[in-house]
Amino acid sequence: MPENQHTPCENPLWPCAMTGAVACLAGFADLGVIVHGSSGCYFYPASLVGVPVHGTFLVENEIIFGTESRLSEVIRDLEGRYSRIAVVNTCVPAIMGEDIGDLARNGRVLIVDSPGFLGDLEAGYRRALEAVAPEVDPGAAGVNIDGICRTDPFCRGNAIEARRLLDLAGGTVGTTFCLDRYAAAHRAAPFTVGTNPDLASGVGTACGSLLGLDAVSETFENLAATVDGIDARPVREEVAWADERIRKACEKYLRRFDPPRVAIAAQSGYAVFAADLLDRYLGADIACIAARSGPGEGGGAVVHTTDFATLREMIAGAEPDLVIGSSYERAMAPHTAFVGLTPPLRGRVLLSSRAIAGVEGALRLMDEVLNACTSRNRRAGSDCADCF
Fold first, then answer.
1. Of the candidates 180, 209, 231, which is a domain's last residue?
2. I want to staple 266 with a disulfide (CB 3.0 to 4.6 A). Which of 29, 164, 248, 342 is the partner?
3. pTM over 0.85
4. Per the omega criterion (within 30 degrees of 0), is the bond before 207 cis?
5. Are residues 225 and 267 in the same domain?
């Protein structure tokens, strides 16, 4: 491992596998989630998922003499409150090698071994979903939605936008992975659309992504060809309407200002989507893309990294007009225009259900970009302070 590289559980830039597992499981409303570890292991995911989770809050003597009795106590306290309970194992109990499998003997308790050193958020999310063991019901109506994750600031907004588009096309929603009830995971529909390719569930036949206007159109054409009752025409019309609105707004911007130079940091799917959108409509110079997820280095300007030093060097070298990413990237370029795309997004009140997927997601991202860049140009002394 390079000298400046951290293991996933040591690096706060992107959540570890334990947090990914908690985020997946916390998306099931009737499933109680226990973080089996120290208070530090508990508070990090608890601060991100936005719903109550529980912990064993292990202390020294329990680590020395065994943690099973403490875990059993917490499970007993929760049994009457949830239909099922999921225990997410963290680094210390995993290293100790305690066998807590007997606690799952009644089938009402899931044991998910997802310590931070297993990998990144996506690895933990997939590990937890495997433990849930979703099943497809060939006779189930609707279309599943996947790629929904409780740590994502666009979690609820993406689910709402996917539901809206399916309703517009005359369809219904099957199971939402993972923002649903536990039982729904075991009667999933045969077909699925995604909102975030980095968190594809693998449940049902994938019919495409809702991330980007072209992807929305293509996905609904696929659905219309495979699912009875789906009409792609209303969605195509809305995509064309949104495309025209974005083009007009960007042309107005470009009559006054040069295309921005942009640095992007996010999960791979979101980062590439943002880069494509800005290139298409603004002719933006995409100086660098730091992808949180994915192995090794990508093609072109894409570098897969969760290392602070590497990211700081990339942004400093890019000298961007606009940074798209998290609070970390904002702190690295405090005087640059900024748009939030990935957690954490600190110092901002985020109450509304904002989407990044679908038609509304593309419109919202371009809203943010144009407003941020216009404000920056005004601060820089533009001669057109009232152009928008």
1. 231
2. 342
3. yes
4. no
5. no
